[in-house]
Amino acid sequence: MREILQENFHSILYYILLPICLTLIALRINSVLKRRSLFNKLPGPKLHPLWGTMKLFGPKEVGLSKFENYLKEHIDDKIIRLRIGPFRYLIRVLDPELAGRVLSMGPELTPKSPNSYRMLTEFLGFGLLVINYKKWFSRRRLLTPAFHLGIIESYMSTYNDTTDVLLNKWRSQVGSDTAIVDVFQDSTLYTLDVILQCACSYKSNCQLDVTSEVNEYISAIFDSSKLTIERISYLPNLLPLYFRLSPSGFKWRKVCNRIKQESLKVVQARRKAIVSGEKVVKIRPDFIDILLTSPDSSGNTLSDSDIMSEMSTFLFEGHDTTASGVAWALYMLGKHPDIQSQCREEIQSVLGGRERIEWDDLDSLKFTSMCIKESMRLFPPVPSITRVVNEDLVVDDYIIPKGTPVNIPIILLHRHPKYWENPDKYDPTRFYSQKPGGSNFSYIPFSAGHRNCIGQKFALTEELIVVARIIHSFELESVPQDIKRLSQLILKSENKLKVKIRTI
Ligand code: HEM
Hints:
By secondary structure, the chain is an alpha+beta fold. It has one domain (41-503): CATH 1.10.630.10. Helices cover 54% and strands 10% of the residues. It contains 18 helices and 11 strands. The chain has helices spanning 2-7, 9-41, 61-73, 96-104, 114-124, 133-143, 149-154, 156-174, 183-200, 213-233, 240-245, 247-276, 287-293, 304-335, 337-351, 366-378, 410-413, 456-473; strands at 79-84, 88-93, 178-182, 385-388, 393-395, 398-400, 405-408, 474-478, 485-487, 491-493, 498-503. The strands form 4 sheets. A 4-stranded mixed β-sheet has the order 1-2-7-4. A hairpin with a 3-residue loop joins strand 1 and strand 2. Helix 8 (156-174) packs parallel to helix 18 (456-473). The model has no long low-confidence stretch (mean pLDDT 89). The structure holds protoporphyrin IX containing FE. Residues 128-129, 140, 313-314, 317-318, 321-322, 325, 381-382, 385, 445-447, 451, 453-455, 458-459 line the site of protoporphyrin IX containing FE (HEM).
């Protein structure tokens, strides 16, 4: 039998395996063509055979404005079909209710899109932001207590002390006259200072010492955001080997290592302190305590690499996003002196003669909160998010096939002319409404559904304190310029956001 098999090996291969292989290839081609024809039925612009729609709507102001004009012309469309390069289709949701539907589907039905989030894993590791399914469930449960209101309340003195550092820095720059500050840079230093203290009780002095190591970390975060966009918006960079060997790939690895090093340093220092019994000066249990000591649902504590990933996620998500929120809020208030004065009146009446903001003051700073919300509408710190639908999604007459990445462009939904009157106008009074933008999902700076932002309350409190105290101490006047948004991982400005400050 063995001999017969050996003798006829080539014939067996030819008559049995070859047809099987050809059938499999034909089935694959058929499924690709079927998917293609489904995608081609969806509304969307004409596709370039090679680039798809890559060159149509870029991340800079020109591309964003083009998309906003597209929205005006296709005001009733709920989706748009895009294609990145020759094969990768992407659906962008243009309707808030549909965005809500996608975000409210079970997290197992809408995991994070691997293509969009893979790059994040290279510098953040597998933390809460990127993990999926069961791992996400148990991790979210484990980390939620770190964001309870009682814990946020215990950070009030840190928010206030760190704001004092910023205010004193600006006071010394102003002297008896005025000074011009780049609010993006100073907000970033402030939020990093806060998160390092709250996450690991680490006093970095980064606001004052611009040569500190922490500032290298900030530039690494800045570069990572820039390189991520470079990597997804230039076709050859989509080929992993090409990117690896390119100068940008080299820089990318350097930046990823720098970011990981920062969290490793922090975790190792705390482990060392625990082992040696050294007393760490802490105001409260910080995030790292919770990570080191809390068991997951199976009773195990997190491994070092999991802890590092969570630390990287907290440090990254916890400072760059909030910095963007603070910077745009200050810039918009500096552009609208009448609204700024109204805020100041509110703050003065709440604080009386006091400087520091207490927990019980927060609810009374209603108008100031509305100003912050409105600037996050126009300039959402996280401009877009992406999920993959794990089951066919029927939208009116269309089918979005299972496995398709679905992008939710928060930045476009926040200015959708069908839902927002005068969408480009800065008008905080919109937030008197219970449902601004007419839908529960027209305004989603912190996303919505199961995987919404865990740090929302932390961020809003931190933003409110620093913005209110700045307005209380300084008069702001934004240096006029054409605002050029830059939609990277975080929404930035292509040019510096300069504001003239004068002590009150
Ligand atoms: C103004 C500030 C902030 C904004 C606008 C913001 C926005 C968001 C958004 C839109 C998401 C969803 C991301 C996605 O689906 O891919 C998210 C998730 C997340 N955010 Fe924030 N964030 C802010 C501040 C913070 C802070 C201060 C922290 C932590 C200290 C934080 C930690 C996280 C984490 C861990 C996730 C993942 C949650 C999960 O998947 O369960 N964020 N954030």
